[in-house]
Design brief:
Layout: E1 2-10, E2 21-27, E3 30-35, E4 44-48, E5 53-56, E6 58-63, H1 76-86, E7 88-93, H2 104-113, E8 120-126, H3 139-145, E9 149-151, H4 160-172, E10 177-178, H5 184-187, E11 192-193, H6 196-201, E12 205-206, H7 209-225, E13 229-231, H8 237-248, E14 253-258, H9 259-263, H10 285-296, E15 302-304, H11 332-339, H12 346-352, H13 355-361, E16 376-386, E17 405-415, E18 418-421
Parallel strand pairs: 1-4, 1-5, 6-7, 7-8, 8-9, 9-10, 10-13, 11-12, 13-14, 14-15
Antiparallel strand pairs: 1-2, 2-3, 5-16, 16-17, 17-18
Helix pairs in contact: 2-3, 4-7, 7-8
Length: about 425
């Protein structure tokens, strides 16, 4: 199928048409013409929206698709549908599965699931066997099979010696280690951010220090061992300060933040909605303002969805017993854009959900140029819309955003010669 996108503003600094409103013709999956006005023939599908913007396809660096082992929460196919609805043409799939993505066969399973699909999947292999932080997984074999990085997802590698050896090994095979940071001896039993709201609600708090201590330790290990490290989720201004200092010392380190950490703060937990129980927890309002500042100042490299499906049995329980996590692929851009509305340029925001993740992972970055493969997200950054259950393509429904009005929405994605329209 050929496609003609009409009257669309290009948001892509690498394109000679950046900030121009043009028509884009896509034939057999390739951009063949970009001009002020293009006529479509009868074999071309026309896409035209009010206030349409086009960027390179969005790339989510952290989503849990639960497959294999927990397919009742999400599988690779339903995860790709959720990604498409959120405007993503590519997603990094985390290894917290059963069995874990910890060998060549598991990596190939993920890669084969997305062949010729509109949404591409990039497997993140386990750093350690079963994500337990003890024995190194088969990193080299997984890298050869197509793993783009390695992580134990939200399991902290508590043993400093293990992480030291992992950094040394990943350096030797030119691989990236994604390391989650939380001192579980401090956070154990915690239900939300430590602070005034936790005290009012009578819930045990998780101090930001639990994150900051591990961030600081891991940076020291990186400085000693060498290698490349990405901290996928930061939720504390002090964590970001440590990372900023490490960058100033030319350490190879980057970091990400979940979109919901920019929009929500811990006071929203007043009615004990278990869909707002998250890891890391929502911080207080003052901290959230600092997180926004960090994004605006480019101290944070990427914005992720942290898509984490959970079955209803793990959410419709007492808050203390609920499992952390929320589905977020369909709302990540909208949440970040709403949180930073009129503060951030679309160019900078899109950079953090498209080109920066690819650069950090060492992947090719698409461009909106004639002759390039069409890997495109269409979106309206000013559209006000209300998120409802009809927008959910995920198998799971654990989201606190039903009934929320957002600013900014994905409209469609085009990739591998195919197009998916958002609801």
């Amino acid at each position: 199928m050929n496609y003609l996108i009409k009257n669309v503003k290009i948001v892509d600094a690498s394109s000679p048409h950046h900030h121009k409103t043009v028509d884009i013709l896509i034939e057999q999956g390739t951009i063949t013409q970009i001009a002020a006005a293009i006529k479509a023939d009868k074999n071309t599908k026309v896409l035209e929206y009010e206030n349409a913007h086009a960027s390179i396809g969005w790339f989510d660096m952290q989503a849990h698709f639960c497959d294999p082992g927990f397919e009742h929460r999400e599988d690779l196919q339903s995860g790709m549908k959720a990604a498409a609805q959120g405007g993503y043409t590519a997603v990094c799939v985390m290894p917290a599965t059963n069995p874990a993505i910890q060998n060549k066969a598991q990596v190939e399973y993920v890669r084969n699931a997305c062949k010729n699909s509109t949404v591409e999947l990039f497997p993140i292999g386990s750093l350690t066997l079963n994500n337990q932080g003890k024995e190194m997984a088969e990193l080299f074999d997984m890298k050869q099979a197509g793993a783009v990085a390695f992580s134990d997802y939200k399991n902290t590698i508590a043993d400093a010696g293990v992480l030291l050896r992992l950094l040394q090994y990943t350096e030797n095979i030119h691989a990236l280690a994604l390391v989650y940071c939380e001192d579980e001896s401090m956070s154990h039993g915690g239900q939300m951010n430590e602070g005034e709201t936790a005290t009012k609600l009578g819930l045990k708090g998780i101090p930001a220090l639990a994150e900051e201590l591990i961030v600081q330790r891991n940076i020291q290990l990186l400085s000693y061992a060498g290698g490349s490290m990405h901290i996928p989720m930061v939720s504390s201004k002090q964590s970001i300060e440590y990372i900023k200092q490490a960058k100033n010392k030319n350490l190879r380190i980057s970091c990400g933040i979940a979109a919901y950490h920019l929009l929500l703060h811990d006071a929203v937990l007043h009615d004990f909605d278990t869909n707002l129980k998250l890891s890391p927890p929502l911080r207080d309002k003052a901290e959230v303002e600092q997180l926004k500042r960090a994004v605006l100042n480019d101290w944070v490299d990427v914005i992720i969805s942290d898509h984490c499906p959970e079955e209803i049995e793990n959410k419709e329980v007492e808050f203390d017993h609920a499992t952390p996590g929320m589905i977020a692929l369909e709302t990540a851009y909208a949440a970040a854009n709403t949180a930073l509305h009129e503060k951030i340029t679309q160019e900078k925001l899109i950079e953090k959900i498209s080109s920066n993740p690819r650069k950090i992972l060492g992947l090719p970055v698409p461009s909106l140029k004639v002759g390039e493969k069409a890997n495109i997200t269409l979106f309206n950054p000013a559209l006000k819309w209300t998120y409802t259950e009809k927008h959910i393509a995920s198998k799971s429904k654990n989201t606190p955003f039903i009934g929320t009005e957002f600013i900014g929405k994905a409209l469609a994605i085009i990739n591998n010669g195919k197009c998916v329209l958002a609801q």
